[in-house]
Inverse folding.
């Protein structure tokens, strides 16, 4: 008993903030899989925990829901004083994920917690792999959710990215409560882009049989507005992007710039 108490007193806790990618276990990194399976506690939104259910066994599972992010972060930091904890974050924890909140909570709590961020495949790279090569040059990622960012700031960012000819990825484009933000964003981008610029809409990227996508143009994209929802990632090409039809499949190519220096 004395030896067990000594081991417990000397135990060092650690908090992993784990990006689980698009949700399919085969797209997790090996390191993400390892830390989840060897944690004492796994904490996360119930939807994300369901996606990695096959990795959950002896760990203590703490399920949460949307809107409870601060509570989850506080609980994870507290538990990590003496336990190994995995905080689950969809996609990559640094891209609209849990890493920033967890570090802020740890900082404000003034607790000595070791935190490691474990990267994951995010929606923009998952969607790009389905569409072809739309983001091989400079790009900007903008969330259309104005829950935490004022809409006037989002408009400024859209205007700046569009005017600078970035490839643009839109996250959180449309929800039942925010059903006009997507159309407003397209209107802003149209001020700087031709109607023929390719646009890719990807829903449930790399999520088994749930995946679906559409390749269209900036001039026609609002014809698919009803198809767009919170599970959709939007990729809008720059002035050089084009659509290539291969085997009756439309793919988006954004040139990296080699064509300006080499023949091929």
């Amino acid at each position: 008993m004395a030896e067990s108490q000594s081991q417990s007193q000397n135990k060092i806790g650690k908090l992993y903030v784990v990006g689980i990618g698009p949700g399919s276990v085969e797209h997790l990194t090996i390191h993400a899989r390892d830390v989840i399976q060897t944690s004492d506690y796994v904490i996360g939104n119930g939807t994300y925990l369901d996606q990695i259910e096959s990795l959950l066994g002896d760990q203590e599972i703490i399920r949460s829901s949307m809107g409870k992010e601060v509570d989850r972060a506080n609980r994870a930091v507290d538990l990590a004083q003496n336990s190994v904890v995995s905080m689950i974050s969809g996609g990559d924890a640094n891209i609209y994920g849990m890493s920033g909140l967890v570090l802020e909570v740890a900082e404000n709590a003034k607790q000595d917690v070791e935190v490691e961020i474990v990267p994951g495949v995010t929606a923009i790279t998952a969607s790009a792999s389905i569409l072809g090569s739309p983001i091989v040059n400079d790009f900007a990622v903008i969330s259309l959710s104005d829950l935490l960012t004022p809409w006037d700031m989002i408009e400024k960012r859209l205007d700046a990215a569009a005017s600078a000819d970035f490839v643009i990825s839109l996250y959180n484009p449309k929800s039942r409560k925010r059903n006009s933000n997507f159309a407003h964003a397209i209107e802003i981008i149209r001020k700087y882009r031709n109607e023929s610029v390719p646009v890719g809409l990807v829903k449930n990227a790399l999520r088994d049989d749930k995946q679906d996508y559409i390749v269209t143009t900036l001039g026609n994209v609002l014809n698919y507005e009803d198809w767009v929802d919170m599970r959709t990632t939007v990729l809008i090409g720059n002035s050089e992007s084009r659509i290539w039809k291969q085997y009756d499949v439309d793919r988006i190519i954004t040139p990296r710039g080699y064509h300006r220096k080499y023949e091929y």
Notes: The CA atoms of residues 36 and 86 lie 6 Å apart. The radius of gyration is 21 Å. The helical segments are 2-9, 30-37, 46-51, 69-79, 99-109, 123-131, 151-163, 181-190. The first helix runs from residue 2 to 9.
